[in-house]
Amino acid sequence: MDIVDRATFQAELDVLRTREKAHTHEGDAIAAARRRLPVVEVDAGLELLGPDGPVTLLDAFEGRRQLIAYYFMWNPGRPAQEQCEGCTFYTNQVAELANLHSRDITFAVFSQGRNVSTPPADAQTSYDEALRYRDFMDWRMPWYSAQPSLDTLLVGRETGLFHLVCYLRDGDSVFETYWTKRRGVEAMDTSYALMDLTIYGRQEEWEDSPDGWPIAPASANRHPATPRGACPAPVYRPTPPRMGDAANLWMAGRDVDNSSRKPPSRLTATP
């Protein structure tokens, strides 16, 4: 780490700023090209599971013109700490949906009922587990199971891997307009964007950083596609790596005594 005077620091930053502006302009150009992509029609009647029973893909729009669906990886029958860290990391950052709604966009999570290394189990059972996980995490976005139609919804893609898919509704017709996976879902993220502004960055092994820069430890059960250290944790917990008894009770839908923790979170789930 070189320590310099203010003028030297600003001169180096100005050089970098030129590259940052070029990066921003290229991003604008890519977004413009994305808006001009052709679209593919998708069966609007494809079945999803909702909190009150079966619904359709069209229903998931909630009457809005566009839908962004995050395809959440799921590990059937496993406790909270064995669910996908990456999906938890990204979903945890989608909080206020009003801004999307103001542009006629619905955001929803589509639980896949499986992941890349675990086959699916009973769809309704996995969905009930996923709903308890959503409540345990105190998430408020619409949450469906895509398992009944997953192979059709993600045709030509790797089911069980997290995806972000954009849809457009024209009357009762639905069209897929864009999709991405892996690091493409960083569009949902603010934490990494802020980390990238700091001198230590994301503190991950793959980054090009000076020798001696800190590296955050990887979790033992982390899937290779997910971020390091993004362990599932209730939003009110200050230390994500340790989840305690509450994490072991959510799967069974049992009541958790949360009276000693502030602010409270909705951990009581319906079996």
Automatic annotation (TrEMBL):
InterPro entries per UniProt: DUF899_thioredox (IPR010296)
Protein known as: DUF899 family protein
Organism ancestry: Bacteria, Bacillati, Actinomycetota, Actinomycetes, Pseudonocardiales
Protein origin, superkingdom: Bacteria
Residue numbers spanned by region Disordered: 220-239
